[in-house]
DNA topoisomerase IV (Aquimarina mytili), 124 residues
Amino acid sequence: MKRIALLFLLPLLQTGCYQQNRDCVNFHTGTFEFETFLDGELAKTTFVRTDSIEIDFFRERVDTASIRWINDCEYIVQKLHPKNMTEEKAIHMKILTTDKNTYTFEYGLVGAAKKQRGTAKKIK
């Protein structure tokens, strides 16, 4: 009976020790793409990020934001030239997992409980 219990317990212990890869520093700078569905249409954003600035290209519109890294995997984005009250609010970004040229992230307004997820691809 102990052997049968061990057969079920051993795989559980192995999966419990698995950690997601988070090589966040590799994604601090570069050119990235992010795709999402907006109003039923696939929308693509391209952005270029340095250590302190992010430039977003979305639907023929360009926006620039400052970046403040909290740690290797989290940063705050603040638009430099907001056009309304909503754009004045900072966004908290957290890289959850990384792969060769992609990372999965969670984002939301600073202090808000509601978070959304996405995946960005590093193209340069």
About this structure: The chain has one domain: 20-122. The helical segments are 2-16, 85-88.
